[in-house]
Amino acid sequence: MTVKWDTWGSLLLEVTIGSWLLMSQEAIAEGLAQPKKKLEEAIPIEEMLKSTDMNIPATTVDEWLAQIKQADLVEITIVQVEDTADGFRLQLATTSQLATPTTSVSGNIVRVNIANATLKLPDGETFVANAPAPGITSVNVTNLPDNQVRITITGTDTPPALEINAGPAALTVSAPPSDPTVQVPEADLTEVVVTGERTNTDYFIPEASTATRTDTPILDTPSSIQVIPKQVLEDQQVTELDDALQNVAGATVSTTEGRGFQINLRGFDGVPVFRDGFRLFSPNDNGDAAGQGFPEIANVERIEVLRGPASILFGQLDPGGAVNVVSKRPLETPFYKVALQAGSYGLVRPQVDLSGPLTEDGSLLYRLNAVYQREDGFRDFAQKTNRFFIGPTLTWRISDRTEVDFQLEYLDDERPLDPGLVALGNRVADIPRDRILGEPNDRIESTFIRVGYDFEHRFNENWTLRNAFRYLESNDDISATLSFPFIGGLDETTGLLSRVFAEQTVANETLALQTNVVGKFTTGSIDHTLLMGVDLARYRLDSESFTLFFPPNVRVPINIFNPVYGAVPRPDRLEAPTSSETIDTDSLQIYIQDQIKLLDNLILVAGLNYETVSQNTTTIRGGQTTAIDLSEDTFSPRVGLVYQPIENLSLYANYARSFFPSAAVTVDGNPLQAEKGEGFEVGIKTELLNQKLLATLAYFNLTRQNVATADPTDPRFSIATGEQQSQGLELSLTGEILSGWNVLGSYTYTDAEITADNRFEVGNRLPGVPEHSASLWSTYEIQTGSLEGLKFGIGFNWVGDRTGDFQNSFNLDSYFLTSVAIAYQRDNWRFGLNFQNIFDVNYISGIPRTRTRGIQPGEPFTVIGSISYEF
């Protein structure tokens, strides 16, 4: 980075940022040779002077000395953005000479600090321009303490390279292409030392792709969508994805006995997790997360949560919504980070994140994330978790219009299988939360492989072809001691819990191919963004169970109040499985969506998805083989409208239907019909505080029919609960309140109940869904002075009381959690310390499976410390 001083006689600051990745060397050279001409064409200086109260600059030494005495503090009175052929130009009118700026780089952000200056704008003291040019996320001009002004330029993936020119009454900051063949003359250049972190410090991400499969501003999307960026994950020291989802309005996350986790959005469970638009697991009965496991957070750039029906783009979904995890991508500039986390209950978690170019021309980029985690956990007997992950990524820029990303992830995870606590009467049994009701050596060993590519070709600036492929494979080997209702369950008089030794192997395999075209065009005065695509997928689930439920002498009882472990030796695995199941699913979906800008402030989003699914289920139980073939096809429409009465305010509404073919069967071996859902939503979104803070308020009403849930007499099978309805209000807030002060908050009211059924009572509340819940996380980082880089954080989570099952036979108490954090970053070092559940609240998280399984106690007071270094 270089700083060049010149003597131009205009009173403005110009930031020129544009398609610098695509410009030719000749265009760059011509642009560098004619800076003064471009300045004069931008805005006539006479017009800027007429619109201010400033004096004409001094033309003699005496006049200059006189003005220095009269005004020491320079005021910036006008900030104006102008489109140019190369991108945009940011112009600042000032009252006198600006001081020499200082520059620093932090991740994909470049900051230019100007001392002895202040913003005095007619409409406030901050200026923001979002997405002013390709490759640039935002430009901010704001006041800092101690009479400083900061210009912040945020790149999409990498920081722009800056050249700074200034004279007695002007300053110009430009971002030319990073072309190594362009040589800037060394004469009159002053070197600027660049230091600072490379982490994106923004909480508010203005664009998301999950709701439309196109990069669309959230304000232009007729859906409720919340983005959790990697800065939040770092501030909260998140180690698993389910912890991150506690920040999401209307989300309830359950761990399924160590096999993975299940997400509930807006009162409905079975919400799937997608990785870069691809489903992480195959559909199976009861909406369990089999095959989903615990996705690694180390390779995650951000998490996008779409609330409401989304079958139009993702196919087989429940109406609650979808979670899309966006992976980290290779960076153009070298980046190397090593980190270590350590904390309570034996947590040790070292990790590395390496990225940069492999060739001088930047046509090959790489990224490598790797992490190892060891943890004892807070439950009895220090049941260890061991986890290893590695994820290399390679980007090949074939040309300026074509590129392909190759991705590989491998995860090996071993952890205890924990059935949780039990219900006694209408409450959770009053026993220590660290007590296990399985056996100390109950385990689950999992491996996960994900490999694929993302190909993109841009025909021109308006039309793009995208093609992507994924192969996913997961294998679980389970050895556990479990309780089932049909073998006796819990004797509430004696406290004896009937259990059996159970073993199971589960293998999931997915092949998925996605192809779509995105095009922008106009019909008259109406702008269109058209998306057309075809998705193909093949899922296969194989499971074998090695469990003897009968005769009664194979039972392994335990007293929940006075447990004795190891009373019955664990038998060797049987030579042949007692039951097995194979589910093969093929799906084809064709979709089309048009984002139509009817007026400057009126956007219509309409789409239609056709999906056909064929499914074959082969089950062997008790020596009998049952084969079931299902074939389902459906059309899933979606329509949404966005009206923006004023700038930065959107009123929206949408209606959509969903479709989910279930692999579930009843105890009698009969298949359940596909689940159908629909919903509508109305809401309001606004970007506050100069587009730094996003607020969303939404009302939703969702209905689903023929829902597959675990049979209370035998959770290996399913029943259909008829119809369920969920309606409520959501309020979410994310972004920056003041410079350095970030906030992420939500409140949700949910009324979720059974509205029609032949087994459960109509009006029963859906299990695990609180009527009221709220969360708040806020951090403040000192911006200047000797304590610059010191950050404080505090968070709250409140969950109201819930019912534990569909019969509403027991309740889960409400709880309120408090967490605090402190971090310090200096140069390339970062230190962090997080205290979670500081009042050691005893609570139950998630949604139980039955009265004797899945009642999971939340973590007690926990401390996590971290240290990282970037070089």
Task: Please tell me about this protein's structure.
The chain has 871 residues and is mainly beta. The chain has 3 domains: 2-191, no CATH class; 207-314, Beta Complex (Ferric Hydroxamate Uptake Protein, Chain A, domain 1), CATH 2.170.130; 337-576 and 689-870, Beta Barrel (Maltoporin, Chain A). The strands form 11 sheets. The chain has a 22-stranded antiparallel β-barrel. An 8-stranded mixed beta sheet has the order 7-3-4-2-12-11-1-13, with no helix packed on it. It starts with a strand and ends with a strand.
Task: Using brief descriptors, characterize the structure shown.
3 domains; eight-stranded mixed sheet; 56 strands; disordered N terminus; 871 residues; mainly beta; single chain; 22-stranded antiparallel beta barrel; Ferric Hydroxamate Uptake Protein, Chain A, domain 1; Maltoporin, Chain A
